Amino acid sequence: MQLNLAIQDIYIYPIKSLGGVRVEEAWVEERGFLHDRRWMLVAPDGTFITQRKHPQLALLQVVLAKEALLVFDKNDRASQIRIPFDKSTSEQMEVTVWDDVMIAEKVGVEYDKWFQKKLGMKVFLVKMPQTTQRKVDPKYAKNGEIVSFADGMPYLLIGQSSLQELNSKLNDPVPMDRFRPNIVFSGGRAFCEDEMNSIRIGEVEFGIIKPCARCVLTTVDQETGKKGKEPLATLASFRTKNNKILFGQNMVALSLGKVKVGDSLIVME
Fold first, then answer.
1. Among 227, 225, 216, which Cα is nearest to 73's?
2. Which residue, 28, 180, 218, 229, is the most exposed by fewest CB within 10 angstroms?
3. Within its chain, how far is the Cα of 210 from the centroid?
4. pLDDT tens string 151-165
5. Are 122 and 44 in contact (CB under 8 A)?
6. How far apart are CA 21 and CA 98, in angstroms?
7. Mean pLDDT of the chain
8. May I ask the CATH class of domain 5-267?
9. Domain residue ranges in the chain
10. Residue 45 above 90 pLDDT?
C-alpha cells in the first residue's frame, strides 16, 4: 500500500539557532541542504551558542538574499546586517558542537560587533569551510556521511499529522517552527515517519537513521523569544522512550539533487 504523501514545507537554518527560512526548493548536499547551518555563533572559547541558553536568538531572523544572508531583529526590522556568502577572514578557530571539535573560519569583526550588540555578550560569527569534514556519529552513519554545524544529523523530517496529534493534546497549539525540521510532509497518519527506513523525494533518496530526541529549545516561542514549559511537557507524556522525548526523524541523504515543495514522498522501505 503506497501512502499519498507530499512535501509541504522545506526549511533551512543558515545560522545555527537563529530564525529559519522557508524555501520552495533546496539543493540536497551530503552535510545538509545548501546553506543550512553553515554559519554559527560561538563564545570566545569556541563553544556553540543556541536558544537553549539564549532564547533571544529566536528574535534574529535570517533571509536568503542574492549571494548573501540578511539578518534582522524581529523587534526592529531597520536593524539588519548583510553577510555575503563568500565573506571570510580566512582566520581559523577551533569550535565545538557537543562532542565534536572542528575548524571554522571567522567571518569578520563587523559581524561579530553587530551580534554582540544584539545579544549583549561577546560572540564570534564563524562559517564552516568546505575543508572541514565533520563526521556523522559512526553509530548512525550509512556511508560515513559528514554534517554541518547541526546538532548531529544533516536532515530532520516531520509529518504535519504528527504536529496535529500533539496539538490536539495542548491547550495552546504550537507551530512547526518549534521543532526546526528541514522537511515537513502532508498526508499519512500521525507519526507514520517512525516506521520509514528509506524514502525518495523527487529524484533524491534519504535514509532514515533514528528518532530525534527533543530538548528545551522546543519551548521557545520563535516569535517572542520567550521560554515556557510546552510543548515538551505534553510531548513527554506520550512520546518518551529510554528517557528521551522523541519527535521527528533524523535522516542522511543517500543521493544528491534538488527537492521541491509539492514533490511526492515515496516510502521505499
1. 225
2. 229
3. 16
4. 999 999 999 999 999
5. yes
6. 24
7. 97
8. mainly beta
9. 5-267
10. yes
* Cell numbers representing residue 158 in the block: 516531520
Compute the distance between CA of residue 204 and CA of residue 207 in angstroms, rounded to an integer.
Answer: 10
Residue bearing cell 560572540: 123
Indicate whether this model's pTM tops 0.90: yes
Query: Grid coordinates in use for 1?
Result: 500500500
Which three cell numbers mark 172? 495552546
